[in-house]
Amino acid sequence: MQQLQYSCPTTLEECLLLLQQAGASGMPYAGGTDVMIHLRERTEHMRQIRLLVDLSGLSELKGVYLDASGQLHLGAMTTHTEAATSSLLRRHAPFLAAAAASVGSLQIRNTGTIGGNVCNGSPAADTVTPLTALHAEAVVQSVSGTRVVPVPALYGRGGIALSPGELVTEFVFPSFAGWQTSFVKLGRRKALAISRMNVAAALELQNDGTITGARIAPGCVFRSPDCVNRAEEHLIGKAPSRALFAEAGQLSSEEMIRRTGVRWSTEYKQPVLEALVERALLQAAGMPAEE
Known about the structure:
Layout: E1 5-7, H1 12-22, E2 26-29, H2 35-41, E3 51-54, E4 64-66, E5 71-75, H3 80-85, H4 87-92, H5 94-101, H6 106-111, H7 114-119, H8 128-133, E6 137-142, E7 145-150, E8 155-156, E9 159-160, E10 167-174, E11 180-186, E12 197-205, E13 211-219, H9 229-235, H10 242-260, H11 266-285
Parallel strand pairs: 1-3, 2-3
Antiparallel strand pairs: 4-5, 5-10, 6-7, 6-10, 8-9, 11-12, 12-13
Helix pairs in contact: 9-10, 10-11
C-alpha cells in the first residue's frame, strides 16, 4: 500500500512552503474527486506522491468577486456548485456557470473545484472551454513569486504545465455581461457524463443585431484548449443566421483537421463539431436549434 503524509495548512504561505519542500513528491489536494480514484487505481503519475496538501483550509482561494476595473476573480477552490449558483457568474459569465452546473453529479459538484477541473489537465474538463472563451488568465503562485498565464498555456504535452511547488490560486477574466453566451456538451449519456466534445460560445450584438464580437472555444478537439479565430472573425459585422453559424461550424472543423490531421475519429468528429458549434451559436443568439 502506498504510504502518504497529509497536511492541511491554514495559510497560503504555509501551503506554498510545504509544496516547495515536497517538490515532485507533493500534490495539492482540492476536492479529491479524481485524486482518490487515482490513488485507488495506483495510476503511474501518483506513484511518486508522498504528501497530499489539503487546500480546503485556504479561504483566500474560494469565492468570486468583481474588482473595480470590471475583472472577475474566481478562486481556484470554488466548487462547481458555488460557481453554478453564483449570481456574479450568472450575470458576467453565464456560460461558465452553465458549464459548472453540467459537471458530474450533485455530490461531485459539491466537492469538486474549478481549479481541480482545470489542473487535472484533461481535455474533457467542462469549465476549461468557457474559461478559454473568456480569455481567462490563471494566477500561479509559489514561494518564488507569482506569474499570470492564459488558461490554455497551462496545458502541455504531458498534462498540466506546472512546476513542482506551483499552485493555481485563481482565474481572472473580464465581464461578459453585455454578451450572449452558451455552453453545449455531448456525452455518452444525458447525465453524469464526461464530455466527448463541448463548445462554449459568446456573441456581442449591436442594437441592430449585427455581431460585433464572437468567441468559439471547442473542447476535446485540439491538443490544448483554444478558440477558433477564423470562425470568430467570419461572424464579425454580419447578422446572426443559421447559414452563417453553419459556416462557422465548418470553419471550426477545418481548423481541427488543419491542427490535428485526419485520424480514424475524424469521420465522426467533423460533423459532430460542426453541429455543436452551430447549435451553440444558435443558442447564444437566442434562435431555435431546429428549423
